[in-house]
Design brief:
The complex is a heterodimer. By secondary structure, chain A is mainly beta. In chain A, 0% of the residues lie in helices and 53% in strands. By secondary structure, chain B is mainly beta. Helices cover 0% and strands 50% of the residues of chain B. Chain B has no helices and 10 strands. In chain B, the strands form 2 sheets. In chain B, strands 1, 3, 4, 8, 9 and 10 form a 6-stranded mixed beta sheet that branches. Chain B has a 4-stranded antiparallel beta sheet with strand order 2-7-6-5, with no helix packed on it. Chain B is globular. Classes of the chains: A mainly beta, B mainly beta. Chains A and B meet through strand 5, strand 9 and strand 10 of A and strand 4 of B.
């Protein structure tokens, strides 16, 4: 089992550029989460998908952030335009049970984003 | 070694000693609690969970204690090993089936050889 796969692992970009983060959940998992981790705010849930449908995007900071899940094996988180305050580690997590035990959230290794 | 709530974010412990990591949660309506371990460069990893109808749960070398009266959660690690060096987070939610987790700030545990 490869676990949750995220790419890239590191991204350095300049302010104003578009950034796309990618996630491949564990096969068979039907819930997917995007989190952001910073020293100031800790781990925050950005968006939650269930069966490829966005269920809760209340954590998405602003319109510059968007997320898609075109199929069960792929999701993207896009920031356009990026700003220095977006610098953080972004995690993707997946869960095998729709609305089930949240103990089953498996986290990927994260993407460290630096916006200059 | 012992940490106190979220005001002491680091804990240094001698290898072989027991560790106690504390967490004060804020929502008295929280019904479900989880401890996560995050090693450097990796994502959080589930350690152990507990529901609010319990006050203690044991796993392999780890024990979680819940005191709902004072809204306090602790994680005890027995015979701490170098591989236990990591950041430990407590998380709370309103229910066992609630996907929304509220994470604490984390405690950095460093194991001294």
């Amino acid at each position: 089992d490869a676990g949750v796969i995220q790419s890239p692992r590191h991204e350095v970009t300049e302010m104003g550029q578009e950034v796309t983060l990618r996630c491949k959940p564990i096969s068979g998992h039907n819930s997917l989460f995007w989190y952001r981790q910073t020293m100031m705010r800790g781990l925050e849930l950005l968006i939650y998908f269930n069966n490829n449908v966005p269920i809760d995007d209340s954590g998405m900071p602003e319109d510059r952030f968007s997320a898609k899940m075109p199929n069960a094996s792929f999701s993207t988180l896009k920031i356009q335009p990026s700003e220095p305050r977006d610098s953080a580690v972004y995690f993707c997590a997946s869960s095998p049970v729709a609305g089930g035990p949240i103990t089953e959230q498996f986290f990927g290794p994260g993407t460290r984003l630096t916006v200059l | 070694g012992e940490s106190v709530g979220l005001h002491l974010p680091t804990l240094s412990v001698q290898e072989g000693d027991n560790s106690i990591i504390n967490c004060a949660y804020s929502n008295s309506a929280s019904d479900y609690f989880i401890w996560y371990k995050q090693e450097s460069g990796k994502g959080p990893q589930f350690i152990i969970d507990i529901r609010s109808n319990m006050d203690k749960r044991q796993g392999q070398r780890v024990t979680v204690l819940l005191n709902k009266t004072v809204k306090h959660l602790s994680l005890q690690i027995a015979a701490t090993q170098p591989g236990d060096s990591a950041v430990y987070f407590c998380a709370e939610s309103l229910g066992f089936n609630d996907y929304k987790l509220s994470f604490g700030a984390g405690t950095t545990v460093t194991v001294r050889a």
